[in-house]
Design a protein that fits this description.
The chain has two domains: about 5-35 and about 220-400, Rossmann fold; about 40-210, Glucose-6-phosphate isomerase like protein, domain 1 (Rossmann fold, 3-Layer(aba) Sandwich), CATH 3.40.50.10490. About 45% of the residues lie in helices and about 15% in strands. The protein has helices at about 15-30, 40-45, 50-65, 80-90, 110-120, 135-155, 155-160, 175-180, 200-210, 215-230, 235-250, 265-280, 300-305, 345-360, 375-400, 410-420; strands spanning about 5-10, 70-75, 100-105, 125-130, 165, 185, 255-260, 285-290, 310-320, 365-375. The strands form two sheets. The chain has a five-stranded mixed beta sheet, sandwiched between helices. Strands 3-2-4-5-6 form a five-stranded parallel beta sheet, with helices on both faces. The termini are far apart. The relative contact order is 0.17. The structure holds 5-phosphoarabinonic acid (PA5).
């Protein structure tokens, strides 16, 4: 089983709900819904361009051989899927399987970029610039700065072998630059938007470069596709979407994505973009938030237990941890923890989860539970695909286009005015 789900503490669905849910799935998968020209990600696990896939593996190998660091330059959907996968799969401390993966262009922070420059000064690095449009301000600005660092450190030929561009197949500033300079390019397919793109070259190149088995990641997504695009009652992605919409109708308009493993928190960041940008339009949508338990129970636990009753939780748990330890026994038992002696720490985490669930449900916070057997490439590929289908169905049920983001333009126009960009002054 790829994913175990428990919706029993989220309310009940009826026949009509299921009819609506399966109809929404059909609309999404058959490409008849809003924004259907951006549903290429649904078939992507089965329809990969094999030549590009091989080039990704070769480029990843080159990056591993020549670099201590791979710098991924991108923002939003052009970096969050990669970071979600890599943070989930790489060890907490160091990465023996490949270069360190660092990010740029995801912030305008001058301190961040300045410190990154110092950090990279004595390291060999490669750069993967990722931008579908090729014109997004944050990554374009960061790359302009980084390109200068590279010129100070490397010859033109070295820069050519260390620069990888992932962008539109034929248009945009990045594509023009790559063609001029002879940089290797990878394609962001026309029919896949940023937040649905982690299985395209956007994610696969840096993920493979980090030493992750991208075949397993794709296999997980393929198996998830077989399960979650099937129009049958009991389809867990549809069930999840139905519960979210039902909970929203009941006034639960904030969803807390909760993970009990710190390394899964970036999935929460990706999840927030996926659902927030897909559903938050036309005055609709659930506000997605993310929390790490038990850590955040010591900061947000009070609000969850007794604050406004507009919350529900979607909890992600990993059945088999990567590592475990046994609680030692002490003679003195000064901390009073001998009652746990001999227990595994993972068992403690799991029991904490059960206790928290009971307390929060009793406090009026419905709970959706998701469990993967392991945090490995196969299960993470499956999990993210599950969320993408669920999000497409959920947005379709809500009646909005899951694949556009018209509201994002407003901040850009306003920011361009402040910056004095030609064509945007008052
Ligand atoms: O989901 C999206 O479409 C956005 O988050 C984009 O990925 C983000 O704005 C970056 O765009 P681009 O890849 O064109 O630089």
């Amino acid at each position: 089983m790829q994913l175990i789900t428990d919706f029993s503490r989220a309310g009940n669905l009826n026949e009509t709900d299921w009819e609506n849910g399966l109809h929404a799935l059909e609309t999404l998968v058959s490409g008849q819904g809003k924004g259907s020209e951006f549903t290429g990600w649904i078939r992507l696990p089965f329809s990969y361009d094999t030549q590009e896939y091989e080039r990704i593996k070769q480029a990843a190998q080159t990056i591993r051989e020549q670099s201590e660091v791979l710098l991924c330059v991108g923002i939003g959907g052009s970096y969050l899927g990669t970071k979600a996968v890599l943070d989930s799969l790489l060890p907490y401390f160091g990465n023996p399987a490949g270069p360190e993966i660092l990010y740029a262009g995801q912030t305008l922070s001058s301190s961040y970029l300045r410190e990154l420059k110092d950090y990279l000064a004595d390291k060999d690095y490669s750069v993967n610039v990722i931008s579908k449009s090729g014109t997004t301000t944050e990554p374009a600005l960061a790359y302009r700065v980084i390109a200068e660092w590279m010129q100070e450190k490397y010859t033109e030929e070295e820069i050519r072998t260390r620069t990888f561009i992932t962008t539109d197949k034929e248009k945009g500033a990045l594509k023009t630059l790559a063609d001029e300079k002879g940089y290797e390019t990878f394609v962001v397919p026309d029919d896949i938007g940023g937040r649905y793109s982690f299985l395209s070259a956007v994610g696969l190149l840096p993920i493979a470069a980090a030493g992750v088995d991208i075949d397993a990641l794709l296999r997980g997504a393929q198996d998830a596709s077989a399960l979650y695009t099937t129009k049958e009652e009991g389809n867990a992605a549809v069930e999840y979407a139905l519960h979210r919409n039902r909970l929203l109708q009941e006034g639960k308009d904030i969803e807390l994505f909760v993970a009990y493993e710190p390394n899964l928190m970036t999935i929460g960041e990706w999840f927030k973009q996926l659902f927030g940008e897909s559903e938050g339009k036309e005055g609709k949508g659930i506000f997605p938030a993310s929390l790490q338990f038990t850590t955040d129970l010591h900061s947000m636990g009070q609000m969850i237990q007794e604050g406004q009753r507009n919350l529900f939780e979607t909890v992600l748990f990993v059945e088999e941890p990567v590592g475990d330890l046994t609680v030692p026994k002490t003679e003195e038992d000064l901390d009073g923890l001998n009652y746990l002696a001999g227990a595994s720490l993972h068992e403690v985490n799991e029991k904490a989860r059960r206790g928290v669930l009971k307390a929060h449900v009793a406090g009026g916070v419905p709970n959706i539970f998701l469990q993967i057997a392991k945090a490995d490439a196969y299960h993470i590929g499956a999990l993210l695909y599950f969320f993408m289908i669920a999000c497409g169905v959920s947005a379709t049920l809500l009646g909005v286009n899951p694949f556009n983001q018209p509201g994002v333009e407003a901040y850009k126009v306003s920011m361009f005015r402040e910056l004095g960009k030609p064509g945007f002054t008052e």
